[in-house]
Design a protein that fits this description.
Chain A: GO terms for molecular function: lyase activity. Chain A: Keywords: Lyase. Chain A: It comes from Tianweitania sediminis. The structure holds two protein chains of two kinds. By secondary structure, chain A is α/β, with parallel strands linked by helices. Chain A has one domain (6-164): Aconitase, domain 4, CATH 3.20.19. Helix content of chain A is 28%, strand content 19%. Chain A has a seven-stranded mixed sheet with strand order 4-3-2-1-5-6-7. In chain A, α4 (94-102) links the parallel β3 and β4. Chain B has two domains: 5-262, Aconitase, domain 3 (2-Layer Sandwich), CATH 3.30.499; 270-417, Aconitase, domain 3 (2-Layer Sandwich). Chain B contains twelve helices and 18 strands. Chain B has helices at 5-13, 41-50, 76-92, 103-109, 143-148, 174-185, 207-215, 231-240, 304-314, 332-340, 343-350, 399-408; strands spanning 24-27, 31-35, 63-67, 95-98, 118-121, 135-138, 152-155, 159-165, 194-198, 224-227, 258-263, 270-272, 280-282, 293-296, 324-327, 353-354, 374-377, 393-397. In chain B, α6 (174-185) runs parallel beside α7 (207-215) and α9 (304-314) packs parallel to α12. Chain B is globular, with a radius of gyration of 21 Å. The chains are: A alpha/beta, B alpha/beta. Chain A binds chain B through residues 18, 20, 22, 26-28, 30, 64-65, 68-70, 91-95, 97-99, 102-103, 147-149, 159-160, 163-164, 167-170, and chain B through 14-15, 24-26, 47, 51-52, 124, 138-142, 144-145, 148-149, 151, 153-155, 187-188, 191-192, 218, 221, 223, 275-278, 381, 383-386, 389-390.
């Protein structure tokens, strides 16, 4: 398997526990389908300069139980459009996790990540060594290994492509 | 060494003698359930053919589709979705349940809650089949896997065990028990795990009450909830079951990641304040807060227990002028039974607006609240915008509190009316 490491800057840290990702675009914008319009709405209440400062390859960092509530797909669709390549959090809510992994959007569960990084640090997620390295400080922490199916799904680029692969032996 | 009920069910459906938490297996669901919804079923139906070249599902008896959202349809576009669903079900010879009620409830009524069975849906509230010892999981878009393959990939989850003790007091309902679990254990306590509920107080919680508790399991982070079914649950489920399996039970020496003892003796009615289902509080802290609308219904609540207590409170009384109380029985079977008991007439005479079963009051379709309006609700969620404007507020509570608050136009303690 060739799942590529994530490597980029920490574009934002959501320090709220049980973070409801719908807040990224705001509930009143959750039904917007046009990706430009949706992306324009994203992050405006957190950092008005986000669009100017984010660049392709950046990642997001979250606290415990990231994605709790009733997560919808548009917020992370908008983040991907802005160049975000993955999320690293202390821990994840399962519904959110499953939904984003099925979109082929990498998520790394890393207890201690909030202590490991500051905003705009350069980080790398190494899926083979199961660790997150802070390239700015030289420190690292282990991540929880992906299940076989989750890793395959990310490697394939999402659910549909994963299901086109041969059925794994039971 | 022992096994949990979850491990036993997943061992059977993955064709193994035994599995333990952490094992990754390919499991064949006994039933694959969905309701028609844009972006889900219509996409599965199209992808089956276009991406996977599958014209028909191989074993139609394993599939069931419900039409419970967008009922009644209010536009030709919604009706087109339903037509597509009816057509697919007819072509595939798959059972379709339309206008029977909210699917998670109707699934139990028509026999998919087979004790010992493994069921998947995209929606996590299917966890309520756990009341009957059925392992039922919501797996979001991954449900596509169950439409295009016989087996789905699954990691056997660990189990958190909750033992209920004590006795529920008057006016305290299953709804409060669940929100109390979230308060005591935390909204992440069961992340990626199964919530297994047992203990000496389990038998005093009605089957309907257990459907409420297990149906909300996701707000503890759990992938589902399950109960080792006693005679009362088995009597209901086996009489309706689509197939017969040997019911399975957790071994006494089964391994749990955590065990909680939850005492119900001193539990009071709770309210879950906006904007997250993690915010359980004692109702007593919020009495008198002005409320403009009430919703009694949903796949979590809206059953006979809920309608009976609401009718008891509202009998001979009136919903406050200007207060909008919507009562939506969870299924046609429940609505008919409520009619026979006289509950519908009592509620109507009190001024409740009574709708036929539908998901639409809960999931944000009939969502009319304006900025600064406030509702009491037995719906599943209190997140921003769920019932209208993102600046309106939803206070989740039990059915009795909805009824009492409808009388006063403010958050009210139901116990004084009981």
């Amino acid at each position: 398997m060739t799942l590529q490491n994530l490597r980029g800057r920490v574009a934002f840290i959501f320090d709220e526990i049980n973070f409801d990702v719908d807040q990224i675009v705001g509930v009143k914008n959750i039904k917007i389908t046009d990706i430009e319009e949706l992306s324009a709405a994203a992050m405006t209440s957190y950092d008005p300069d986000f669009h100017a400062s984010v660049k392709p390859g950046d990642v997001l960092v979250g606290n415990h139980n990231f994605g709790y509530g009733h997560p919808h797909y548009p917020p992370m669709r908008a983040m991907r459009h802005l160049g975000i390549k993955g999320v690293i959090a202390e821990s994840f809510s399962p519904g959110y996790w499953r939904g984003e992994i099925s979109m082929g959007f990498p998520q790394a569960s890393c207890p201690g990540i909030l202590e490991l990084v500051n905003r705009w640090d350069e980080v790398e997620v190494d899926w083979d060594k199961n660790e997150v390295r802070n390239l700015t400080t030289g420190k690292s922490l282990p991540i929880e290994p992906l299940s076989f199916a989750d890793r395959e799904m990310l490697d394939a680029g999402g659910l549909t492509e994963y299901l086109k692969r041969p059925v794994p032996a039971s | 060494m022992g096994y949990t009920i979850t491990e036993k069910i997943l061992a059977r459906v993955s064709g193994r003698v035994a599995v333990k938490a952490g094992d990754e297996v390919m499991a064949k669901p006994d039933y694959v359930i969905a309701y028609d919804f844009p972006g889900y079923t219509d996409v599965y139906f199209r992808q089956m053919k276009e991406d996977f070249g599958i014209e028909r599902v191989a074993e139609p008896d394993r599939y069931a589709i419900f039409i419970d959202h967008m009922v009644p349809a209010t536009s030709p576009k919604e009706e087109e979705l339903h037509i597509g669903t009816r057509t697919w079900c007819a072509e595939n010879n798959v059972a379709l349940y339309e206008r029977k009620g909210i699917g998670h409830q109707v699934a139990s009524e028509v026999g998919y809650a087979v004790p010992g069975a493994f069921v998947v849906h995209f929606d996590g509230h299917i966890s309520q089949l756990g009341t009957f010892g059925t392992l039922a999981m919501g797996i979001r878009r991954n449900l596509l896997e169950a439409f295009v393959r016989e087996r789905i990939s699954i990691k056997v989850p660990q189990t958190v065990r909750v033992n209920l003790t004590g006795t529920l007091r008057k006016g305290v309902m299953a709804r409060d028990v669940f929100h109390h679990l979230v308060r005591v254990m935390g909204p992440a306590s069961c992340r990626f795990q199964v919530l297994e509920i047992g203990g000496p107080a389990l038998s005093q919680i009605s089957t309907e009450g257990l459907q409420t508790i297990t149906g909300l399991a996701m707000f503890t982070g759990a992938v589902t909830a399950i109960v080792n079914p006693d005679k009362e649950r088995l009597d209901y489920a086996l009489a309706r079951a689509k197939k017969q399996l040997e019911p399975v039970y957790s071994d006494p020496e089964a391994s749990y990641s955590a065990v909680y003892e939850i005492d119900l003796d001193n539990l009071e009615p709770l309210v879950v304040i906006p904007p997250t289902p993690a915010n359980s509080r004692n109702l007593s802290e919020f009495l008198g807060l002005e409320i403009h609308a009430g919703y009694l219904g949903s796949c979590a609540s809206g059953r006979l227990d809920d309608l009976r207590i609401a009718a008891k409170i509202l009998e001979g009384r009136q919903v406050k002028s200007g207060f909008q109380l919507n009562v939506v029985p969870t299924s046609q079977e429940i609505m008919a039974a409520a009619g026979r008991e006289g509950l519908i007439s009592t509620l109507a005479e009190a001024g409740a607006f009574i709708s036929s079963p539908s998901c639409d009051y809960c999931f944000g379709r009939i969502a009319t609240m304006t900025e600064k309006q406030r509702a009491v609700s037995t719906g599943t969620l209190n997140v921003r915008g769920r019932m209208g404007s993102p600046d309106s507020e939803i206070y989740l509570c039990n059915a009795a509190t909805v009824a009492a608050s409808a009388i006063e136009g403010a958050l009210a303690d139901p116990r004084k009316y009981l």
